[in-house]
Amino acid sequence: MVRRRLHRVAGAEPIGPYTLLRLERGDSEPGEPGQFFMLEAPGRVLPRPMSLCLATRAELAFLIDPIGPGTSALCELEQGEELHLLGPLGHGFDLAVERPLLVGGGIGLAPLPFLSKRLARAGKGRPPAILGFRSEWHAEAAALLPDAEVCIEPTFVTALLPDERHDVLACGPEPMLVALRVLVPTAQLAWESPMACGYGACHGCVVELDGELRRLCVDGPVLRHGGTHGSPTSPLLRRAGTASRTRAPAGRAGDSAWSVRP
Amino acid sequence: MLLNASGCLDALSAPEVARSLDGYVTKTITPEPREGNPPVRIAETRAGMLNSIGLANPGRERFLAQTLPRLRDLELPIWVSVGGFSVGEYAETCAALDGEDGIAAIELNLSCPNVDEAPEGAIEIVAACREATDLPLYAKLSPATWNMAEHARAVEFAGADGLSLVNTLRGLALDRNLRPTLGTGGGGYSGPALKPVALAAVYACANAVELPIVGMGGVRTGLDALELIAAGASSVALGTLLFTEPEAPARIRVELAAEAAARNLAHPLAARRMALGSSPESVVRIGNEFRK
């Protein structure tokens, strides 16, 4: 059922360069980790897709990187203001894994705290996590995932991957996902793409899956390489292939006017 | 009558949204399957959005065999948007749709890339489709012309039963690095900024022809819808709004009724052609034809 709900802002706290936007939960269900919501962006034409970062009985929280006018407007929301939320949408992570290892790059940390909590609740304790950031300032967000191993560029998360086999669940910039796809073929990867609607209407978020263009909002955003979901060539990657000179730095793949974080 | 603009809703992904409308307009169907354009396909701008979806669709055969039967289960009037790259392609698809159940109308997308949009081209396409089917034919026209009325008269002459106004305008957005944001460079511009353009097109065409008109372009409120009706539209379609607010149809209906009541109109369609100052008899006659 595609229906938006109005949510009141409970608070918004800066964490490094990011903002943790906390909303009163109301009637909304948090869904599964890796699923996303469309957040009404104040004063903008289109909402912004954001994966859920944290869920409590009272609140839903989203980690937002203010890289464009829409995400900046979301970060500037104040307690008591209201916005519409559509979701949860899409397919999240498959939690039926033996030895989970969470891997996050930059703002790709966003869905991992909720994922970690859900996995812990499933009875296997807090899963190990590896997080990579471009600076100490960005790495302040690692506080959202206590006990995670953290690296700062020029060290990348791939350097911290353990030798023993793990079920990798990851979210981050595309170069990181591409590298993980090669190193860990069974990894579940959360991809990103610009979206107008988030519920299958606009066909704007297509990625190439096994040679076929499919909508990331309904077939993803979490895809398992080698599984039935195949491996995508995401929009930004395809673009990067034709215009690599203008490629945005890793972790800021959404260099268009607005940011998209599945 | 409230519809969706073609390409702005997938009734199979969101059937409840489709059911909140009075009819469902499909994405444009072409003879052969089309993957559509390479990403990036969506860009937001200050007062609208750009898309370069590129007529992604399963093709005529798969649409008829797989999509249409599932759409019929919705028990909604189905408007099939038809596209092509030659007169023959349009006509063949219309002929293939002619014997199918559950189709309320065909909307000819006369704003495809590589299709001549001059009135002569539109005349040929509409005339060929007229030969191919008895289904109601709506011609969807681009507003990017200096003479909407001439286009409207041309497609009426060729046998169109109605007009769909308007398609998107061509636009371009640049990213931070001053390169085109969309994978194809430019794209179709829609959203709030399109409303005055749509209003002008509907107004011009309603002055020129008596055909029923589906008005669309930047509708966000019931008042927007009422204004399109006053300019001459007999139905209204929602486009970009459905992306951001899937429950919009119910709100638009409530607002539309309230805006009409506030003007002492018995029905929103009683406002039809008010902007043109036509006689009340004509208003009632045309209104009754298209009242559900």
Structure description:
- The complex is a heterodimer of chains A (262) and B (292).
- The model of chain A is unreliable at 227-231 and 234-262 (pLDDT under 50).
- Chain A folds into 2 domains: 4-89, Beta Barrel (Elongation Factor Tu (Ef-tu), domain 3); 100-246, Rossmann fold (3-Layer(aba) Sandwich).
- In chain A, 18% of the residues lie in helices and 30% in strands.
- Chain A is an alpha+beta fold and 262 residues long.
- Chain A is globular and about 45 Å long.
- In chain A, the strands form 3 sheets. Chain A has a 7-stranded antiparallel β-sheet.
- In chain A, strand 8 (100-105), helix 2 and strand 9 form a beta-alpha-beta unit.
- Chain B has 292 residues and is of the alpha/beta class.
- Chain B has one domain (2-289): Aldolase class I (TIM Barrel), CATH 3.20.20.
- Chain B is built from 10 helices and 12 strands.
- Chain B has helices spanning 15-19, 60-72, 87-98, 119-132, 148-158, 195-208, 222-231, 240-244, 248-262, 280-289; strands at residues 2-4, 24-25, 42-45, 48-51, 78-82, 103-109, 137-141, 162-165, 169-172, 186-190, 213-216, 235-238.
- In chain B, the strands form 2 sheets. An 8-stranded parallel β-sheet of chain B has the order 1-12-11-8-7-6-5-2. A 4-stranded antiparallel β-sheet of chain B has the order 3-4-10-9, with no helix packed on it.
- In chain B, strand 3 (42-45) and strand 4 (48-51) form a beta hairpin.
- In chain B, helix 3 (87-98) runs parallel beside helix 4 (119-132), helix 4 runs parallel beside helix 5 and helix 7 (222-231) packs across helix 9.
- The termini of chain B are close together.
- In chain B, 53% of the residues are buried.
